[in-house]
Write a structure and sequence with these properties.
This protein is α/β, with parallel strands linked by helices. The protein folds into two domains: 249 residues, Aldolase class I (TIM Barrel, Alpha-Beta Barrel), CATH 3.20.20.70; 65 residues. It has 13 helices and eleven strands. The strands form two sheets. Strands 3, 4, 5, 6, 7, 8, 9, 10 and 11 form a nine-stranded parallel sheet that branches. The mean pLDDT is 90.
Length: 353
């Protein structure tokens, strides 16, 4: 079994965890991941400006909703100004998040245009200032982590800036850094460069490095750790619609064979539970709209995935959701592993508000 993942004094446990996913990794998704083997998950990325202005209203309250049964849970923060970043981090601490994660990795065009996310990899002085101010604003007992890509592009200058930020982060007291093996310029096109992750881990030594990028199966997760030496991995797009990836990774890590894909009855139970959790967080109309995108992703594990995807895409209420389950999940047929290609167009981050 892999060594337990730790962020400073905080023990996470099994080192295959759920990444932050804008528009997806809310409390219901994190709960489902937890039930199926993920011992740590990050909330969807939030803007510092949004957090500072946030009021405890029904429409926005879900962003900071945490259940004690899912701890530890990380809050991910993104922004442009160092001072506002630390103020946003303070709001996440007040909300009860166990880890504060700084996003320097998002490659979405509108994020970069507002000097957020991966933009900071091109300005080390500002990035380091953000890390220092955030670490100073957060109590010592709460770990601060950072999410990065391997640089703005593949130039020597970009590489040097990456390692400058990485080294400074650990000197400041960051408890772990997640590195995505693509550049900001690549966005989600082309393979994630795992060899770079190996170089980063060798550079970081005993400091905690997690890997990210192209993790679409349980075997991918174990392969990344074995090939690069990283201390853990964060599963992003590969976990949407396939929360079983965490229990599958646990089975492989324990030396067991890869479990068969969940049967349709097993899928139905999780899909129905996911909707029930969402009902506890969102008002009725919004719940149906929010869950449509999850249904589309869950459909990938059904043998008749194209037709199921179409029907989930039309669902917007609990009754229509149940109609899909009755139509397609009433016979306990074998499931299928999703085609990794279905995830490749799904962004891993973006503006949460």
């Amino acid at each position: 079994m892999p060594t337990d993942l730790k962020f400073g004094p905080l023990t996470i446990g099994f080192p295959v965890v759920q990444a932050a996913l804008s528009g997806y990794s809310d409390w219901p998704m994190r709960m489902i991941a937890r039930q199926l083997g993920a011992q740590y998950a990050l909330c969807e990325v939030m803007l510092d400006q949004f957090l500072v202005a946030l009021k405890n209203r029904q429409r926005t309250g879900h962003f900071l909703h945490i259940g004690d049964e899912q701890r530890p849970v990380g809050g991910q923060l993104m922004g442009a100004e160092p001072a506002q970043f630390s103020a946003g981090a303070t709001k996440l601490v007040e909300a009860g998040f166990d880890v504060i994660d700084i996003n320097f990795g998002c490659p979405v065009k509108k994020v970069l245009g507002r000097c957020r996310g991966g933009f900071h990899l091109g300005q080390p002085e500002v990035a380091i200032d953000i890390i220092r101010r955030t670490r100073d604003a957060v109590p010592d007992s709460i770990p601060v982590t950072v999410k990065m890509r391997r640089g703005i592009d593949d130039s020597t200058e970009s590489r040097d800036k990456f390692f400058r930020i990485l080294e400074a982060a650990f000197e400041i007291g960051v408890a772990g850094v997640t590195v995505h093996g693509r550049t900001v310029q690549q966005r989600y096109v082309g393979p994630s460069r795992w060899q770079f992750l190996k170089e980063v881990k060798q550079f970081a030594g005993d400091n905690v490095i997690l890997g990210s990028g192209d993790l679409f199966s349980a075997q991918d997760c174990l392969d990344m750790m074995a090939q690069t030496g990283v201390d853990g991995v964060t599963v992003a797009r590969g976990a949407i619609g396939n929360p079983w990836i965490f229990s599958q990774a646990r089975a492989l890590a324990a030396g067991r064979s890869l479990p068969a894909p969940p049967s349709l009855f097993a899928q139905r139970e999780v899909i129905r539970d996911h909707y029930h959790l969402a009902e506890q967080l969102y008002e009725t109309r919004r719940c149906g709209q929010m869950m449509r995108k999850f249904g589309i992703k869950y459909a990938a594990m059904h043998p008749d995935h194209k037709q199921v995807r179409t029907d989930f895409g039309k669902s917007s209420t609990r009754s229509t959701w149940e109609d899909v389950l009755t139509k397609w999940y009433s016979e306990d047929r074998p499931g299928r592993y999703p085609d990794p290609a279905i995830h490749r167009s799904q962004s891993e981050c973006g503006e949460a508000a």
